[in-house]
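TA notes, week 10

Several of you asked for a full example with nothing omitted. So below is the full record: structure tokens for the whole chain, then the designed sequence directly under it. When grading your own attempts, check the secondary structure regions first.
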């Protein structure tokens, strides 16, 4: 069985109910930034999961559809010069109605891209689908 390697230019479409997100695999640097927030000290895990989630959102989410602003217009993400999400977009995404599912997904893909997302009880979450794409948008 062949193992799939994901490049930082690859994209993964994640569908949570009717919301579609395009995310990228994290680079080594980005993973180290997240893992630096979730660390062991003297055998005890010390974590700031909200800050880690904000970093995961910042580095991984590249597009979103199926989300509207309060006035009914389609929601648009805002990025800085290096392609990372601005804090305003991070705040907004953390306040969406699917933020619990988004948290499960992003923590689930922070080290590798799984074939499916499972809940805390280990059962697959059927309302969440993952579809890998390469950088040109072709399905793998």
């Amino acid at each position: 069985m062949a193992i799939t390697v994901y490049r930082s230019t690859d994209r993964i479409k994640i569908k949570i109910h009717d919301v579609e997100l395009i995310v990228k695999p994290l680079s080594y640097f980005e993973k180290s930034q997240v893992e630096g927030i979730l660390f062991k000290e003297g055998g005890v895990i010390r974590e700031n999961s909200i800050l880690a989630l904000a970093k995961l959102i910042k580095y991984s989410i590249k597009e979103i559809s199926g989300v509207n602003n309060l006035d009914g217009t389609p929601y648009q993400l805002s990025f800085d010069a290096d392609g990372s999400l601005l804090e305003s977009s991070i705040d907004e995404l953390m306040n969406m109605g699917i933020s619990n599912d988004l948290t499960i997904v992003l923590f689930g893909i922070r080290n590798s891209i799984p074939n499916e997302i499972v809940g805390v009880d280990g059962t697959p979450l059927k309302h969440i689908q993952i579809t890998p794409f390469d950088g040109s948008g072709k399905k793998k």
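The chain has one domain: 13-133. Use that as a sanity check on your answer.
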